[in-house]
Amino acid sequence: MRGRRQRKPRSDYLTDALGLLQGWTQDGVQLKRVLVCDDSQHAALTERIKVAADTLRIRPSIRRTDGHTQICLGAGESDVITDGQVTLAARIEDAYRTVVSAT
Description:
The chain has 103 residues and is an alpha+beta fold. The chain has helices at residues 10-20, 39-56, 83-102, and strands at 25-27, 30-36, 61-65, 68-74.
């Protein structure tokens, strides 16, 4: 008789993944990030985020305030942060690095 293989709970690997995404904070069931960028960088970043978000079917909240871009990834219908939201956060980080280094 084979023993059942134990899996880490889903929240453990999401917590580990979030730990690798510096600058992102968890507020209840939302992920938040504030990025410093100018207006043209904000526009370029927003376009890249929209493409990634559409692919993952996630609707982030993106706002421009006082020279900062504020991004919020809410849990939507779920009561927990999903792997899709963590994936989008990672893609946003990549997009931000690309946009900022291009200018």
